[in-house]
């Protein structure tokens, strides 16, 4: 929004940030449990697990990089005691 970035661990923290109130996305009201990075609010997204976000303050551009993937791990084949 206008080259600004706000970060919070909970959406409710953002209610006092900026001049505009939180606005529900109309299509989100039909979804009981949002999935992925979308939230019910316009202009607010979740940062996926194991993802690094960088924000360029001069251009306002955002870059995201996932630094770990679950599928990169080999399945554990040891015994219960080894676990």
In short, what is this structure?
The chain is mostly beta strands.
Could you explain how this protein is built, in words?
- The protein has 83 residues and is mainly β.
- 0% of the residues lie in helices and 12% in strands.
- It is built from no helices and 2 strands.
- It is extended, with a radius of gyration of 18 Å.
- A two-stranded antiparallel ribbon has the order 1-2.
- Strand 1 and strand 2 form a beta hairpin.
- It has one domain.
> pLDDT average, as an integer?
81
Helix content: under 10%
Count of separate DSSP helical elements? 0
Main sheet properties? 2 strands, antiparallel
End-to-end Cα distance? 47 Å
As a percent range, the share of strand residues is 5-15%
The order of strands across the largest sheet is 1-2
Which features does this protein show?
83 residues, 12% strand, extended, Ntn_hydrolases_N
Give the secondary structure arrangement, pairings included.
Blueprint: E1 51-55, E2 62-66
């Amino acid at each position: 929004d206008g080259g600004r970035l706000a970060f919070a661990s909970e959406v409710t923290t953002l209610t006092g940030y900026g001049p505009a109130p939180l606005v529900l996305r109309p299509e989100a009201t039909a979804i009981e449990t949002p999935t992925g990075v979308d939230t019910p609010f316009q202009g607010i997204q979740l940062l996926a697990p194991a993802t690094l976000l960088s924000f360029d303050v001069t251009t306002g551009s955002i870059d995201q990089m996932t630094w770990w993937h679950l599928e990169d791990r080999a399945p554990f084949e040891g015994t219960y005691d080894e676990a």
